[in-house]
């Protein structure tokens, strides 16, 4: 079964860490695709960033069992 996981962080390094941690915690995952997105806005002279990724994957442990 194909599954998805959404990641959303304020910094690109945090996004990388979150995805890498998830993959390390789930070694049976086969990554099908990763969709990356960034956005920004200005609030009271402060620029705010959002870094997001949609991880599309299959869990080989589920399909083999």
Tell me about this structure:
The protein is α+β, with helices and mostly antiparallel strands and 65 residues long. The protein has one domain. It is built from two helices and three strands, in the order E-H-E-E-H. It has helices spanning 12-25, 60-64; strands spanning 2-9, 29-43, 46-59. A three-stranded antiparallel beta sheet has the order 1-3-2. A hairpin with a 2-residue loop joins strand 2 and strand 3. The radius of gyration is 15 Å and the shape is elongated. It starts with a strand and ends with a helix. The model has no long low-confidence stretch (mean pLDDT 93).
What is the strand and helix layout of this fold?
Blueprint: E1 2-9, H1 12-25, E2 29-43, E3 46-59, H2 60-64
Antiparallel strand pairs: 1-3, 2-3
Residue share in helix: 25-40%
Q: What coarse outline follows from CA principal-axis ratios?
A: elongated
Strands ordered across the widest β-sheet: 1-3-2
Radius of gyration: 15 Å
Q: Helix segment count?
A: 2
Number of strands: 3
For the record, give the distance between the C-alpha atoms at the N and C termini, rounded to a whole number. 12 Å
Q: What are the segments in which pLDDT stays under 50 over at least 5 consecutive residues?
A: none
Report the β-strand fraction as a percent range: over 45%
Give the overall pLDDT as a whole number.
Answer: 93
Characterize the main sheet: 3 strands, antiparallel
SS class: alpha+beta
SSE ordering = EHEEH
Number of domains: 1
């Amino acid at each position: 079964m194909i599954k998805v996981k959404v990641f959303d962080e304020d910094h690109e390094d945090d996004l990388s860490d979150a995805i890498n941690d998830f993959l390390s915690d789930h070694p049976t995952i086969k990554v099908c695709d990763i969709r990356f997105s960034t956005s920004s806005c200005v609030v009271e002279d402060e620029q705010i960033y959002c870094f997001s990724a949609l991880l599309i994957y299959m869990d080989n442990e589920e399909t083999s069992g």
